[in-house]
Specification:
Layout lengths: L5 E10 L2 E10 L8 E9 L2 H8 L15 E9 L9 E5 L14 E4 L4 E3 L6 H23 L9 E3 L5 H12 L4 E5 L5 H7 L1 E6 L1 H4 L10 E6 L3 H9 L1 E9 L13 H5 L3 E4 L7 H14 L2 H6 L1 E5 L3 H9 L6 E5 L1
Helix pairs in contact: 1-10, 2-3, 2-8
Length: 330
């Protein structure tokens, strides 16, 4: 915890020469308004953080901006009825790191309504090993369950399997008793994915080409973080009455598919939004993560770095070269 109101912050600015990213010394007076102040101990990096830092997509909509859509830490000051100094808290989304200063700094100030108390059984580091990617994976599992999916219905496909969402999704689904099919473009990660619980590995090339209106029924459900033709192919090969949870766009935002799976097989496409999800849904997701996620598997998918390395990691996560999850020590 900082000993004064001065701390290091990664700051994105934008001028005539374009976007600039640099570490700066900040003070509490430099932060944005909010009713809770938090000493940040850990953060992580997600695909959206990579976009923000590299400027590859206009994720940041206010400058200057401290990126980082996730953090865990300890409340140092609060005017919010739910929180008091000393409380351990977690932040995911709500536009933090995009329109409100985020987690790549020693301190953060924000609305208490955006925070949840850290589950007692999870450390701050474990919460950031989960991060928005893992919390999104849990929201996707909840959506599949809400539409009647159960292990006896058939296998579940996970695309982008070696990434953050995919890794946590595999670990969760396998512990819940599902037969998991993992789609990846990294054949070298087969042993890693099987260690997380995948029963079968398929090449992402099987799904990334031009989509057919309907294909052979192969899975009862799917969690897709890729989008575009991959998602269209996933839907086209989903079994009758199955559900696909869509939560990402690594391949693209388009969806060049057909209505055939929806009107001929009764397939459901469930959209997963983690950024603005209501607090009640977040609490359910985090409670389930605390009970359903194998900690040994979480540790196996996690690497830990100083937050100072995040600028170097940003292009790597966009390139799909980071396996699993990253914890950043602040």
């Amino acid at each position: 915890m900082p000993t004064s109101d001065r701390f290091k912050a990664l700051v994105i600015t934008k001028g005539d020469a374009g976007q600039q990213v640099a570490w700066s010394e900040y003070g509490l007076a430099d932060l944005m308004p909010g009713d809770v102040t938090v000493a940040v101990s850990h953060s992580t990096i997600n695909y959206k953080d990579g976009l923000a830092i590299t400027g590859k997509s206009p994720v940041v909509r206010r400058f200057p901006m401290i990126p980082g859509i996730d953090f865990a830490g300890t409340v140092t000051a609060s005017e919010h009825a739910e929180f008091k100094p000393g409380d351990a808290v977690v932040l995911n989304g709500w536009g933090v790191g995009e329109t409100h200063m985020g987690g790549y700094a020693g301190m953060a100030r924000l609305k208490g309504d955006w925070l949840i108390k850290r589950p007692a059984s999870l450390s701050a580091a474990e919460c950031m090993a989960i991060g928005t990617a893992g919390y999104t994976a849990m929201l996707a599992v909840l959506a599949l369950e809400a539409h009647g999916l159960a292990p006896e219905r058939g296998p579940v496909l996970v695309t982008g399997a070696a990434g953050g969402v995919g890794s946590v999704a595999i670990a969760l689904l396998s512990k819940l008793g599902y037969r998991v099919i993992a789609s990846t473009g990294r054949a070298s990660e087969s042993d890693y994915l099987k260690g997380l619980g995948a029963a079968e590995i398929i090449d992402r090339g099987d799904l990334s080409g031009t989509a057919r209106a309907l294909g052979k029924e192969r899975w009862a459900g799917a969690i897709d973080s890729v989008g575009s033709t991959t998602l269209a192919n996933v839907i086209a090969q989903t079994m009758y009455g199955g559900t696909v949870a869509a939560c990402g766009l690594a391949q693209g935002m388009d969806l060049p598919g057909s209505v055939a799976p929806f009107i001929l097989r009764g397939v459901t496409l469930a959209g997963i939004d983690s950024v603005m999800a209501p607090k009640a849904r977040r609490l359910v997701a985090w409670d389930r993560l605390a009970s359903d996620l194998d900690r040994a598997k979480l540790a196996a998918m996690t690497t830990t770095w100083s937050v100072a390395k995040v600028v170097e990691l940003a292009p790597q996560i966009l390139a799909g070269s980071i396996r699993g999850r990253v914890v950043l020590e602040v």
